[in-house]
């Protein structure tokens, strides 16, 4: 079964074939109510279009475009990854990489070229052993085999647990004393990560913990509490609420967020700092605030922005990406002013999500860095004439 396809390096006249000047197409397997099996994101330089395919339509689309309108095509199935490369002379090369075996390289005119060994990834939640919450969430079957269409989610969960594992030495004093780690998950959604962290700490690291999840959607919170009840989990509870107005009973040791939208990430970071959390793990999402501020600047204020930055603000799609990076950079600066050691890390491979930056912040000492003073707005924000929520 095809899980995903990425088509890139289009031919010059691709608009004649597909109707638009696409530069890349990403297709992935999905489960939809209307019976479509695949969802496509079709990128031009300035826009993204969406299209649905069933299996037959996808096969036909790939036959008409692989190596013809797009010179590079990467297809991933549940057993292998196939890369199709077409050069300027029309010669096609296929590279086959088995997901649990060697890499085999062949082309259209020769026998196999290379065989390279591949190491199998060892996950903190191993494959082959059923994990109750993963089975209930439909990521594993009863025998512990990861469902092919959910493998990206399985990989994402394990990657996040690696970040959790890395910061556990910061809590050696609490774990040695048998005190529970208190964790708050803001914007928890269906709480894949919340359940994963609880399982990892209690069942694998044997560390007591108390975890609470918060989300705006009542139906999601009801679902999560029902899940916790079905699994018989202790010290795991979910609440409905807004991060900006939330006030928990206990100060958390760790605050985590996965794709808390726009300024919700800022409110979560502020909450963590105000409650003196020792560690923060945050993967931001859809950061609109600075982009909106840049869009609304009139000619008078826009003229104050250094001319060297003009190309980054000229085109909407570039300005949006630039604004996102500026937002996270300023969040990092703010956290450092609050006496946290900050790292900007790759979450998981960009092929699987564009929301790929993880902010990891660990409190450097017990004292408050600002000591009652307001944080200073960095020169970058002043140069762009913007003020992000984190500095408000």
What this model shows, in words?
This protein has 392 residues and is α+β, with helices and mostly antiparallel strands. It has two domains: 2-116, no CATH class; 132-286 and 339-374, Rossmann fold, CATH 3.40.50. The protein has 13 helices and 16 strands. It has a nine-stranded antiparallel β-sheet with strand order 4-3-2-1-5-6-7-8-9. β11, α7 (218-231) and β12 (236-240) form a beta-alpha-beta unit. α9 packs across α12 (316-337). It is globular and about 70 Å long. Residues 101-118 and 349-353 have low confidence and may be disordered.
Secondary structure elements and pairings:
Blueprint: E1 2-10, H1 14-18, E2 24-29, E3 38-43, E4 48-53, H2 55-65, E5 70-77, E6 80-86, E7 92-98, E8 103-107, E9 114-116, H3 132-136, H4 151-167, H5 172-176, E10 181-186, H6 192-204, E11 209-215, H7 218-231, E12 236-240, E13 254-261, H8 264-274, E14 279-285, H9 289-296, H10 299-302, H11 310-314, H12 316-337, E15 340-346, E16 357-363, H13 379-384
Parallel strand pairs: 10-11, 10-13, 11-12, 13-14
Antiparallel strand pairs: 1-2, 1-5, 2-3, 3-4, 5-6, 6-7, 7-8, 8-9, 14-16, 15-16
Roughly what percent helix?
A: 25-40%
Q: Which structural class do you get from the secondary structure elements? A: alpha+beta
Strand order of the largest sheet: 4-3-2-1-5-6-7-8-9
Outline the low-pLDDT stretches. 101-118, 349-353
The number of E-state strands comes to 16
How many domains? The number is 2
Share of β-strand residues: 25-35%
Amino-to-carboxy terminus distance: 49 Å
Q: Please tell me what the overall shape is.
A: globular
Major beta sheet summary: 9 strands, antiparallel
What is the number of helical segments per DSSP (H or I, 4+ residues)?
A: 13
Question: CATH top level of the largest domain?
Answer: Alpha Beta
Average pLDDT value?
85
CATH topology of the largest domain: Rossmann fold
Give me the CATH superfamily of the largest domain.
Vaccinia Virus protein VP39
Q: What is the radius of gyration computed over CA atoms, rounded to a whole number of angstroms?
A: 24 Å
Please identify, by name, the CATH architecture of the largest domain: 3-Layer(aba) Sandwich
């Amino acid at each position: 079964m095809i899980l995903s396809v990425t088509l890139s390096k289009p031919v010059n006249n691709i608009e004649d074939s597909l109707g638009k000047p696409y530069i890349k197409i990403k297709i992935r397997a999905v489960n939809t109510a209307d019976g479509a099996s695949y969802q496509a994101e079709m990128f031009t330089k300035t826009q993204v279009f969406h299209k649905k395919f069933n299996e037959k339509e996808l096969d036909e689309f790939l036959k008409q475009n692989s190596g013809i309108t797009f010179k590079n095509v990467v297809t991933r199935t549940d057993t292998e990854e196939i890369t199709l490369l077409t050069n300027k002379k029309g010669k096609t090369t296929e590279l086959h990489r088995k997901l649990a075996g060697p890499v085999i390289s062949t082309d259209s005119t020769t026998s196999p070229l290379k065989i390279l060994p591949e190491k199998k990834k060892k996950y903190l939640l191993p494959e082959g052993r059923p994990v109750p919450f993963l089975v209930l969430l439909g990521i594993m079957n009863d025998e512990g085999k990861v469902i092919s269409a959910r493998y990206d989610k399985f990989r994402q969960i394990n990657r996040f647990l690696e970040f959790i594992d890395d910061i556990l030495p910061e809590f050696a004093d609490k774990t040695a004393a048998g005190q529970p780690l208190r964790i708050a998950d803001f914007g928890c959604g269906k709480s894949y990560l919340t359940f994963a962290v609880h399982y990892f700490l209690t069942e694998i690291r044997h560390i007591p913990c108390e975890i609470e999840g918060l989300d705006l959607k009542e139906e999601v919170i009801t679902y999560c509490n029902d899940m916790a009840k079905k699994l018989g989990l202790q010290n795991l509870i979910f609440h409905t609420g807004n991060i900006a107005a939330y006030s928990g009973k206990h100060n958390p040791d760790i605050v985590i967020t996965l794709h808390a939208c726009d300024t919700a990430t800022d409110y979560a970071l502020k909450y963590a700092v105000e409650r003196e959390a020792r560690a923060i793990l945050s993967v931001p999402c859809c950061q609109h605030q600075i982009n909106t501020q840049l869009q609304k600047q009139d000619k008078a204020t826009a003229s104050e922005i250094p001319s060297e930055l003009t190309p980054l603000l000229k085109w909407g799609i570039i300005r949006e990406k630039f604004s996102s990076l500026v937002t996270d950079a300023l969040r990092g600066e703010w956290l450092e002013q609050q006496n946290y050691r900050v790292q900007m890390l790759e979450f998981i491979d960009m092929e699987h999500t564009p929301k790929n930056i993880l902010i990891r912040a660990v409190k450097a000492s017990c004292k408050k860095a600002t000591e009652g003073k307001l944080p200073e707005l960095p020169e970058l924000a002043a140069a762009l004439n913007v003020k992000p929520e984190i500095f408000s």
